[in-house]
Amino acid sequence: MGVSRDVTDRKLAQEALKTARDELEMRVKERTAKLQKANAQLEKQIEERMRAEAIIPKHYKINDGDGLKLLQRESRTQHRKLSEVAQAVISSKFIID
Questions:
Q1: Across the chain, which distance is largest between two alpha carbons, in Å?
Q2: What span, in angstroms and rounded, lies between the C-alpha atoms of 67 and 69?
């Protein structure tokens, strides 16, 4: 009876290990997807900002008070968006070894 119990305990441990490994793999896939989405958002925002920075000087004089205010407002908006995405990534508690 001692031998069959040892085998049963080993089988239970192996099954628990497999379950834990499967769960970890699922969590990694979920977090990877979140990071990929956040990265795509950041890339899109960077592209939008670059386009805005390229277009705005053509239509507004930088020395013009209204043009400068528009640039500052756009900069603050983009910074806020980037901060929100970064905060979402940080709050996912993703750890890279």
A1: 90
A2: 5
Summarised one tens digit per residue, pLDDT across range 36-78 is: 888 888 888 888 888 877 776 655 555 556 666 777 777 788 7
Q: Which structure tokens are listed for 21?
A: 């490994």
Pick left, alpha or beta for residue 95 (phi over 0 → left; psi -120 to 50 → alpha; otherwise beta). Answer: beta
* Strand ranges in the chain using DSSP code E only, listed in sequence order: none
pTM: 0.50
Count of other CB atoms within 10 angstroms of residue 38: 19
Tokens 């979140």 correspond to: 34
| Amino acid of residue 38 | A
Tokens found for residue 56: 């705005």
- Domain boundaries, given as residue ranges, for the chain: 2-91
The candidate with the shortest Cα–Cα distance to 52, out of 67, 31, 33, 36, is 67
Q: State the amino acid at position 20 in one-letter form.
A: A
